[in-house]
Each structure stands twice: as structure tokens, then as C-alpha cells.
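Could someone model KG4 with this protein?
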Amino acid sequence: MIVLAIESSCDETAAAVVRDGRFVLSSVVSSQIDIHAAYGGVVPEIASRAHLQSIAPVVTQALQEAGLGMAALEGVAVTRGPGLSGALLVGFSAAKAIAVALTIPFVGVHHIEGHLFAPFLEQPVAFPFLALVVSGGHTHLYHVEGFGHYTTLGRTIDDAAGEAYDKCAKIMGMPYPGGALIDRMARNGNPGALRLPRPMLRDGSLNFSFSGLKTAVLQQTLKTAVTLPSQAADDLCASFQEAVCHVLAAKTEAAIRQTGATRLVVAGGVACNSGLRRRMISLCQHLGVELSIPHPSLCGDNAAMLAVPGDYYLSHGHRSPLSLDVTATWDMDRIKESLS
Ligand code: KG4
Ligand code: ZN
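Reply:
Sure, complex below.
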């Protein structure tokens, strides 16, 4: 099946053409980061308007790069939520319009479901598996039994890991989004330079909390008047990254031990992080667990990842009605209800 996938949940307008939920024929991502950087974060109204300008050119480019015409499409998969409602509506409406015009089915997919299955575009993972999804809006541990069947084992009770990265970067005077820059600066810093808190490390739950860590970075920045670039800034980045990765790895290890999982997927934008990737590789080697982390180009927001669950749903007869609305919040544990 040839599926057109569309993503517009936040600040990336993306379209991809994927065959059989596995082979990426094209994947186009148009980022709005430069537009939002001036405001220090994503401005919802501006995001919606930028999606509106980009959506048709991005879809056209995806078809051109795949070497296919519209007539070759057999289904459309699109992010239904969670995300910014106005932003979601642009991609969702485009997907419906294409499906109606071509008389082909369309299906609304959970954005995090896309992240979860991004590794499948490289190598499918056998079910069941444990998944750590770390992005700008999510830090969640899921038990994944199959497409649509997810159980949340743990989640952040405040900031997501990517959000903590971006907020700490802002505190230190870096441009938005600062996650990748902190990662780069951390490589020149000493991770043991500062002892930053490890929130909820030993509370017995699989939940996370990152807001206290952000406060500690703020206090440290004020106390020592950290400037950029400097060794002190590199050390703060390295110490922050060490604290985040320590907590993520410790909770993931606890989840592996509790569930007896033999496979782990790590996905989402923060899965690009070099420190986290290293830590997860050594954790899984130590525990004898099979690890799947997608190539960094598949970790951030893209449309190809949505085609994996999208293809599964469409080829198993699931269709979204044309009356379906987008949803700013959507619990992964409830997806199975919408499929039955
Ligand atoms: O998955 P994603 O592209 O969008 C969301 O669904 O949120 O994740 C974006 C997040 C941002 O917070 C960004 O700063 C973070 O991923 N990020 C990183 C790195 N690359 C992107 N965080 C830490 N290290 C990186 N190398
Ligand atoms: Zn995302």
C-alpha cells in the first residue's frame, strides 16, 4: 500500500510517501524553527499560518521526490493529536481533502504512536516491547503489545525532558530550541563538575520530574553569572545532561526489571541526544536487552513515522470518519477504544 503521511502538530510541516509502512519513498520536513526562534518558543497562531503556507508545497514536493502522482496514493495517514489545535487542523484538513478528492481512506494517528514506530522504518521490532518516548512534550514509558495497544507505565509529572532542555537553554541565553546545542556544549564539559538534583530517582515509581532540575540550573546560572561561551557553561550543560540521562536510564532500567522486557525502543526528539544514546546502549548491553533507537533523522518530528501505524490501520480496515476532529490532548492508553 502506498500511503501519504502528513504531520503538522507543532512547528514542522511534514509529508512523506511510504510503501507498505516500511519503505520511505520520500520524506519532506519544513521547519518553522527560524520563525519561532525570535519569540523564544512556538507561537501557536504563527505556527498555524506557517503550516497553511507550507502544506501544499510540502505535499507536492513529497510526491515529486517519490516520483509518483496523486493517483498512486492508496491511503492517507495524518497526525490527529496531541499538539496545537490550530496547527493540527491544517494537516488534518489537507489529509481529508486529499482523501475525498482521490476517494481513498484516511486515518488519524497519535503523534507519539508515530515516534514509537519510527525505528520500524529501519528494522521492525517484535512485540511486545518497552518504549521510552522523550520529546518536547512527552517523557513516557510505555508497554507496547501491538499497534494501538499501549499501557503507560510512567510519565513526567511536570516538564518533559525536551522541555527541560529547551528551558535550561533559554535560562543560559541560548536560542530556541536549545536541546541540540546543550548536547554539543556538553561534549566539552565535565559531567561531574556540578552535582545537580536527580528528581524522583528513588521514589519507587516509574514517573519523572524535571522542573526541579530546571530551577537548579537557574540558581546556578544566577549564582555564577554563567556566560556563553565559557568552560563554566560547558560544565553546566554536561552536568545537566548527566542528571537527565541518569534519571532516564535509571527509570528505564527499573521498567525493564519490572516488566521483564527483552526489547527497548527509545524515540522522540531527545533520542537524538548523544549522551542518552550512549547510556542506553550500555544499559541494554549490560541487561542483555535488544535496543532500537532510530537514526537521528527519524527521531525528530517527521511524517514518515506516521505511515507505520497508518499503514497498519488502513490495511486492517480501520478508517477515520470524515467528521473526525483533531484533539489537543489524547491518552495513548485510550487509542484501542477508538479502533474497536
Ligand atoms: O520529537 P520532537 O521533534 O518534537 C516533539 O514532539 O516535541 O522533539 C523536540 C525536542 C525539543 O525539545 C528539542 O530541544 C529536543 O527534542 N532535542 C534534543 C536534541 N535534539 C532535539 N534534546 C537533547 N539533545 C539533542 N541532541
Ligand atoms: Zn514529536
